Each structure stands twice: as structure tokens, then as C-alpha cells.
Amino acid sequence: NAGVTQTPKFQVLKTGQSMTLQCAQDMNHEYMSWYRQDPGMGLRLIHYSVGAGITDQGEVPNGYNVSRSTTEDFPLRLLSAAPSQTSVYFCASSLTSGTYNEQFFGPGTRLTVL
Amino acid sequence: AQTVTQSQPEMSVQEAETVTLSCTYDTSESNYYLFWYKQPPSRQMILVIRQEAYKQQNATENRFSVNFQKAAKSFSLKISDSQLGDTAMYFCAFIGERDNNDMRFGAGTRLTVKP
């Protein structure tokens, strides 16, 4: 199993550009999520999905869109990048939503918006 | 909303000694789950240990153990026989049984193990 994979590892954007961060898992997990990690703030939940076709907002959803057309993939879209979106982004998955289940994290994407 | 507080931004410990990282949280839920994650310089998040709130017994995983004080809303991590490979950021995390889609993380503690 590859676990949770994310691409790209690094990305530099100009303000106003759009891009999609890719996330895939091969563990047949129902629950997938996106976090951003900023210095001194830990990880904050952006969006999550409890299964194919079902998504919902987390703590900091503004400026981001998601979709979940398959169990395996959960892309995160930035429609018009802003410098405030400079961060490290992590995708995670678990067998089912929340509770005691371990979340498995991808290696992260470092995004810089100029 | 639930909040998680880690009051120690940085800590250091000598190799082979014991260190305790602090975590407190605030919640109105009666049952919930607490986690410690480790993030080494590679940036990969790794689960260290977890605890379910209604279980009285403190969780242990080899050299890692927790001191869970439900009334005080405290969940500290003890690392025994510290090793150089324990150098990492450590994050405390909370998820409630009711609001079980939103895991909340503390700001992290950067631990350095010195030879």
C-alpha cells in the first residue's frame, strides 16, 4: 500500500492563480480531510469528506473548494490564490469518520503564494 | 468549539532521560478521544498514542505513556529513555464523540533530544 499520497510536494503561485492539490489513498478509507499547518497554530481543518459524493466545511474553508467523486481521491482547489494561503497542506484519511480511528497523513505540500 | 492548548513551545531533554509534554483542552462533551502526534523534520505526521476519555487507565505504547486527568482536562505525554530519534514537533489533538469530523490540534511543542 502506498498509503496517502499528495502531489505536488512544493508549489509557488502568484496571487490570483488557481491550482489543485491532489490527494489519493489506497486503503479504502471512507473519511478524508485537508488541513493547513501554519507556524504557531498547529493543524486546522479546511474541508472533509465522509464518503464519495459527500463533503463538508471545516474550521477554515474560505478560499478552498473540494469534491469527492471516488473513494480514493480528494482534491483541494484554490480558485484565486492569496498570500494568506501560504502554508503547508496535509491530506489525511481514516477508516471512518472521527472518533478513535487513526488518521493517516500524506507527506504534505508546501505552498507559497507571492 | 473545542480548544487544545500546549503551553510549552519548545523543550529539550538529554538522551536517555525522561520528559513530559503538557496539553490541556476545553470541551463540553462527555466522551471524546485524545491523541499525540509526532512530526519529525521529514514533516510526516505519525500517531504516537491515543486515549479514549471514558477509559480510566492511562494509555502506554512502549516508551510513551500519558497522564490523563479528565477532571482537570489535562493530557500530558511522558517519553521515557529519550532517544535522538524522538526529536520532533509533538501535537496534542482532540476529537469529540458528537462532533466527530473535526479534529482540533494544539500549536505543538518542539522537542529536542540532546546527545
Describe the structure.
- The complex is a heterodimer of chains A (114) and B (115).
- Helices cover 0% and strands 49% of the residues of chain A.
- Chain A is mostly beta strands and 114 residues long.
- The model of chain A has no long low-confidence stretch (mean pLDDT 94).
- Chain B has strands at 3-5, 10-14, 19-21, 24-26, 32-39, 46-52, 60-61, 64-69, 74-79, 88-96, 104-105, 109-114.
- Chain B is globular.
- Helices cover 0% and strands 52% of the residues of chain B.
- Chain B has 115 residues and is mainly β.
- In chain B, a hairpin with a 4-residue loop joins strand 8 (64-69) and strand 9.
- State which percent range the strand residues of chain A make up: over 45%
The pair of chains with the biggest contact is: A-B, 26 and 26 residues
Number of strands of chain A: 11
Overall spatial form of chain A: globular
Work out the helix count of chain A: 0
Query: What level of helicity do the residues of chain A show?
Result: under 10%
Structure summary, number of beta strands of chain B? 12
Task: Provide key terms for this protein.
heterodimer; A: 114 residues; mainly beta; seven-stranded mixed sheet; four-stranded antiparallel sheet; globular; B: 115 residues; six-stranded mixed sheet; 12 strands
Secondary structure layout plus pairing:
The complex is a heterodimer of chains A (114) and B (115).
Chain A: E1 4-7, E2 10-13, E3 19-25, E4 31-37, E5 43-51, E6 54-57, E7 64-66, E8 76-78, E9 87-94, E10 104-105, E11 109-113
Parallel strand pairs in A: 2-11
Antiparallel strand pairs in A: 1-3, 3-8, 4-5, 4-9, 5-6, 7-8, 9-10, 9-11
Chain B: E1 3-5, E2 10-14, E3 19-21, E4 24-26, E5 32-39, E6 46-52, E7 60-61, E8 64-69, E9 74-79, E10 88-96, E11 104-105, E12 109-114
Parallel strand pairs in B: 2-12
Antiparallel strand pairs in B: 1-4, 3-9, 5-6, 5-10, 7-8, 8-9, 10-11, 10-12
